[in-house]
Amino acid sequence: MPRAAYEIGAPDGGFAYDNERPRHTVELAPFEIDSLPVTNREYAQFVAETGAEAPLYWEREGEGWVHTAMGRRDPVDPDRPVCHVSWHEADAFARWAGKRLPTEHEWEAARPQLDAVGQVWEWTSSDFVAYPGFEAFPYREYSEVFFGDAYKVLRGGSWATHPDLMRPSFRNWDLPERRQIFSGFRCARGVDR
């Protein structure tokens, strides 16, 4: 994506939560973002080469991996996005791959060009903070009490997310150590242009 000013956040019309507003302009340096989330195959290679912990619900079976959730044991599909990884694990993978996690603004600016959005929530490098001009809605405790550097922003949605929430501006947040949410990620990097 080129160096440019991008409109971020929900427009005035229609429903959106308080943390998606107000819509505002951000200047972004040039960056590249992977069109697809990191796959199970890529993550398994990271685990093999670094000794990192496997995603939640993965167990070794012979030379491969099985997913062991909800009373089932299914082979891990190597081409599906990796799921159930923490922000710390996503960040470690990105550094291992010579990249980084995208900021939430980069993710939103690139959204029209991203594939496979909605299969897993996608970790970003961003802390969950208020946009300039924030006003609490529908009540103060909805998002304002979570603002700060303790929570990281996730974007996109997962297969379990209601379709009405799968808008580009929707911001989810969670603690960076959490793995039990349907979380994956894609990588980005800055570019010199």
Q: Can you walk through the features of this model?
A:
β5 (64-67) and β6 form a beta hairpin. It is built from three helices and eleven strands, in the order βββαβββααβββββ. With 193 residues, the chain is α+β, with helices and mostly antiparallel strands. The model has no long low-confidence stretch (mean pLDDT 96). The protein has a single domain (4-52, 81-190), classed as paralog of FGE (formylglycine-generating enzyme), CATH 3.90.1580. It is globular.
Brief rundown of the structure:
By secondary structure, the chain is an alpha+beta fold. The protein is built from 3 helices and 11 strands. Helices cover about 15% and strands about 25% of the residues.
Count of extended strands: 11
Helix-strand pattern: EEEHEEEHHEEEEE
How widely separated are the two ends? 10 Å
CATH architecture: Alpha-Beta Complex
Which key phrases capture this entry?
11 strands, four-stranded mixed sheet, three-stranded antiparallel sheet, paralog of FGE (formylglycine-generating enzyme), 3 helices, 193 residues, alpha+beta, 15% helix, single chain
